[in-house]
Amino acid sequence: MATPGHNRLTDLDRRRLKRVHRLARLLDSQFRIPGTNIRFGLDSIVGLLPVAGDTVTATMAAYIIFEAFRIGVRRTIIVRMLGNLVIDWVIGSIPVIGDLFDVGFKANQRNIRLIERDLDVALADL
After folding, report:
1. CA-to-CA distance for 42 and 111, rounded, in angstroms?
2. Residue 125 in 3-state DSSP?
3. Which residues of 69-96 are buried (b: 16+ CB within 10 A; e: fewer)?
4. Cα–Cα distances in Å, from 19 out to 25, 64, 104?
5. Selection from 60, 59, 67 nearest residue 26 by Cα
6. Across residues 60-64, what is the average pLDDT?
């Protein structure tokens, strides 16, 4: 029987995971449009500055991937996470369309789910 991922994580790994979970939420879903279930984060707000804003948030998103690598997420998952980041950065850099895309795509939340599946851990429960 395989050992669940959360049993092999060090305390440092758990702190890293909590930090990236909070960052992903801040970037993708921290705020809600009143009266709706539409959530958005800093990625959508800062992304209003064409290219520069998306580059800033892509750098923040790269930190999530870096920490996933440090924790031991498989390289194939890291590549998928990088793909999500690139898609988010390229399409997000398109004025207006990119901002709407950011609200729906939520690359960082996708990457958190990839980490959770790879490590067999629910980051929200750490």
Report:
1. 16
2. helix
3. eebebeeebbebbeebbeebbebbbeee
4. 10, 9, 23
5. 60
6. 98
Q: What is the largest CA-CA distance in the chain?
A: 50
Domain containing residue 110: 5-125
Name the one residue in this structure whose structure tokens are 């879903």: 29
For residue range 96-126, list pLDDT tens digits in order.
898 899 999 999 999 999 999 999 987 767 6
Nearest-angstrom CA–CA distance, 36 and 117: 29
Encoded tokens for 91: 């399409």
Distances (CA, A) of 88 to 11, 23, 72, 98: 31, 16, 24, 8
User: SS3 for 36-103, per residue?
Assistant: CCCEECHHHHHCCCCCHHHHHHHHHHHHHHHHHHHHCCCHHHHHHHHHHHHHHHHHHCCCCHHHHHHH
Look-up: residue for tokens 């970037």? 27
Q: Into how many domains does the chain fold?
A: 1
Please say if the pLDDT value at position 59 is more than 90. yes
